[in-house]
Amino acid sequence: MLCVVKEFTFDAAHNLVEYHGKCEKLHGHTYKLQIMVCGEKDREGMVIDFVELKEIVKREVLNYLDHAYINEIIPQPSAENIAEWIWKKLEPHLSNERYKLSEIRLWETPTSFVIYRK
User: Fold this and answer.
1) Mean pLDDT to the nearest integer, 77-87
2) What does the record note about the cofactor (predicted)?
3) Of residues 7, 67, 72, 80, which has the active-site annotation?
4) C-alpha dist (Å) from residue 3 to 20, 27, 46, 67, 71
5) Exposure winner among 9, 85, 93, 102, fewest CB in 10 A?
6) CA–CA separation, 87 vs 84, rounded Å?
7) Whole-angstrom distance, CA of residue 24 vs CA of residue 22
8) Residue 23 is a catalytic residue
9) Does residue 23 carry a pLDDT above 80?
10) 29 annotated ligand-binding residue
11) Number of domains into which the chain is organized
12) CA gap 52, 82 in Å, rounded
């Protein structure tokens, strides 16, 4: 099995209303998002075309989250909840008989990230 990985960045603001500390106040991040799709190669020798993967992520995720106030989309936008939301948006578009969405990594800072996989 082969895995294809593509990385993206987006800027967004949020605050954690159910959290008591610095992050309960409005603040922003430059998030780094890594999408992994694993499966078998097609006739062209690809699991999934990087161009197709980019278009799906842009349409289903980045168009909503980039330069957004994430609280308007996800009620308690912790990194964990954002990663789960991204998975739910992408899984229907990145799963078929040949490949499937395998893992999402979402960095909130350069040294802090969450991994979501099923």
Assistant:
1) 97
2) Binds 1 zinc ion per subunit.
3) 67
4) 39, 34, 10, 29, 32
5) 9
6) 5
7) 6
8) yes
9) no
10) yes
11) 1
12) 22
H-only helix segments in the chain:
50-57, 63-65, 79-90
Q: What is the pTM of this model?
A: 0.95
Q: Which two tokens stand for residue 53?
A: 């993967």
Domain region containing 34: 2-116
Find out whether 14 is annotated in a ligand binding site. Answer: yes
Residue 64, Cα to own-chain centre: how many angstroms? Answer: 11
CATH number at residue 35: 3.30.479.10
Chain segment 31-67, per-residue pLDDT in tens: 999 999 999 999 999 999 999 999 999 999 999 999 9
pLDDT, tens digit, for every residue of 88-117? Answer: 999 999 999 999 999 999 999 999 999 999
Tell me what pLDDT residue 83 has.
Answer: 98
Sheet hosting strand 2-14, strand order edge to edge? 68-69, 2-14, 27-39, 99-109, 112-116
At residue 97, φ and ψ (nearest 5 deg) are: -70, -15
19 — pLDDT class (breaks 50, 70, 90)? confident
